[in-house]
Amino acid sequence: MRHLTPLNLKGNPSKEKVGKQLDPKELSNMRLKQVAVTNGIFLIAFIILFVVTSVFTITTSQFNIVLGAVLLLQSIYGLIKGETTKSLIPIFERVANYEKQKMGREWNKQQKVNNISRLILSFFLFFQAYSLTDNIFEFDYMIMFIMTFFILVLINISLIYHFRKVDRSTSEADLKGYTRDSYFFGIVLAIVFLFLMVGMIVFYLF
């Protein structure tokens, strides 16, 4: 005899809930892991760059081409991936699931803008590689420390700004226009930090 599945009046039983609301402790733990992994990836990448430039002779053109290729691949992968939240790093996938549910259409818009920005930046780096005078890519220990410090501060301030805006929102309407506002905030912050970083480097050199 055929068994009938009881009808769920609250929704389609064949569809699972995209995510769940996180309690403050879960949200805090997730964000702390996100910050730790983001900072860790940056530091590992910077250490690898320092080791490679110390062992091998790298030109600025080669550096721009490699960095441009990485950004290009990231952009293509992101555009192909579309609206899916899949990630090779579990904590980033969890964050994406949470933020997609929280932000709605603004999340999709943010992903598209991020991928297009990486694409534009990659072409800019390729252009630099073939248009500028080629020099040996070298690191000064003190300059490297100054750059690392300022970039880490910039990354973490941007993350805190993002967390406050997203986590404190109560509806998708609260985040309307967030992608535009966050990019404007990031550009202003980057310009300020660039002047400060260059100022410290000049002070160190002279």
Please provide a written account of the structure.
This protein is mainly α and 206 residues long. The chain has helices spanning 24-55, 60-81, 90-103, 105-131, 141-167, 178-205. The chain contains six helices and no strands. α1 crosses α3, α2 (60-81) runs antiparallel to α4 (105-131) and α3 (90-103) packs across α4. It is globular.
Element layout with pairings:
Elements: H1 24-55, H2 60-81, H3 90-103, H4 105-131, H5 141-167, H6 178-205
Query: Proportion of β residues?
Result: under 5%
Q: Write the H/E string, N to C.
A: HHHHHH
**Mean pLDDT across all amino acids:** 84
The number of distinct helices, counting runs of at least 4 residues, comes to 6
Task: Compute the separation of the termini in Å.
Answer: 89 Å
Q: What share of residues is helical?
A: over 70%
What would you call the structural class? mainly alpha
Features:
206 residues; single chain; mainly alpha
Short description:
The chain is mainly alpha-helical and 206 residues long.
